[in-house]
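Entry type: protein chain
Record version: 2
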Amino acid sequence: MYLPNDPVSIDEMEDYLGYINGKPSKSRKIVLRNNGIQTRYYALDKQQKATHTNAEMTALAVKKLFEQDPEELKTIDLLSCGTSSPDQMMPSHAVMTHGWLPEAESIEVVSPSGVCCAGMHALKYAYMAVRSGEAHKAVATGSERFSASLVANVFEEEAHKLVELDKNPFISFDKEFLRWMLSDGASAFLLTDEPNPDGLSLRIDWIEGASYANKMETCMYMACDKQPDGTVKSYLEFSPEEIIEKSIFSIKQDISLLRDNIVPLGAKRIKEIFDRKGLTSDDIDYFLPHMSSEFFKSKIFEQIAYYGATIPYEKWFVNLTTLGNVGAGSVYLMVTELFHSGKLKKGDRILCLVPESSRFSYMFAMLTAC
């Protein structure tokens, strides 16, 4: 894994992100009280200047895979990189990451788009490539650099307009909510067609996903604006002035839609997977659910239990409180921390759950220590 700079505490957050309209946030303490995050990482300094790009952090995580033998980086034949916060729309995140890896050869690269599930999509592409024989040694990554879209100047023009109109100069909760949730960082997995000869490996037993976009409207969005009828209006349909005034490029979330649907849909899908694969909670040694907030922990437990697939808390392994919500990188960071914790023993089975609220998508994976 690669985490930029030093951990940022609760009290330091606005020192890095800045004060909107020069005023402390009204929502910060409320959101932090519910999400349970104590520290997070920003690729920023206290002048709101970037210290790393997303692609740079991702490349640094890839290089850490090969710290013992940097020459081995030349032997990978696929780079698959998932993120929801690329540094630019074009070129793709994966090719920009490849650009930070001059030690590598000319190889296939792929950039799954999406939000939290993008990292798992990158992993599944690498997994399928190795399993099919198309690749023998692949690297998959999950990363985010959300901080660039959370700094105060992204919202300043909208706040000034509200003051001019004699309205509440504080940004709406759906826009400011995620400022106190998101974190930066990157992690990388090395996938090969043979287990590690010198230590522990994780075998991928299966990876699968599900989207409910055919039934659900947009919940989390960026570079667009949600309309009263539930559709979204693209940034391409706004004038440059409107894009600034309405902070169209800020990340937003429909909180009520999230609260009522994200956990029930995911828990129901877990039950369906358990039934189809003949699994019970006794078959799971570690449960790694990606959560945006500690608020959802009891909800996940209760909903899974409701569907008859109880997973006791002693089997849960999460690091939200120390690393924050790193979106597409979160599941990678959990797996990486567990892998290096000394807790795993051969035969242990790990169930990973990644929900994505953008339009309610989910990815699941089972790993076995071997």
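Comment: The two ends are 21 Å apart (CA to CA).
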